[in-house]
What does this fold into?
Amino acid sequence: MRVISGKARGHRLKPPQGMDVRPTSDRVKESIFNIIQNYIIDSTVVDLFAGTGNLGIESLSRGAQRAYFVDQSRKSVETIKYNLEKTRLISSAEIISSDISSGIKRIAHKKVQADLIFMDPPYGKGLINSTLSLIVSTNLLKPSGLIVVEHDKNDEEILVDTEELTCIRKNNYGNTSISFYQLREETTK
It folds into this structure.
């Protein structure tokens, strides 16, 4: 696991400890960033279920202005901090050690609106829809922003569309799928 591009390019990231963390592979990460490259420069990024901080760190390396990392695991928070220090990106980051609901509310309370939100929840735990709903209800996503959700290809919980969100793209990589969401135009008015 490494930073693929940008000012921290080539830095190896500390791998996850234990079986709770399943980092995004370099191949999938590179594909994601090819798709979202126009959202990154000077953006505000939120990395939910951050694990190692892999996606948020890649965003900072490629020119994001600020990144918020949320994870409730103490080991993950320590790993994220280590990886941010190693890549010298810590000054552009804030790590929130909390469950996802409280973390989203803390960021939203600061009036932050994200250009990009990454979600990589544990597979099969039923966390996708509730997290997407909370993102919408707290107004965490900018009207022009994008949510990138990594999930199991066969996860039946994944939304296609809701009243507020529309799935604009879905890519499969083996057993992993990446779904991309935007706010519906009616929601942004």
The CA atoms of residues 16 and 22 lie 8 Å apart. The chain has a mean pLDDT of 88. The first strand starts at residue 44 and ends at 48. Residues 26-40 form the longest helix (15 residues).
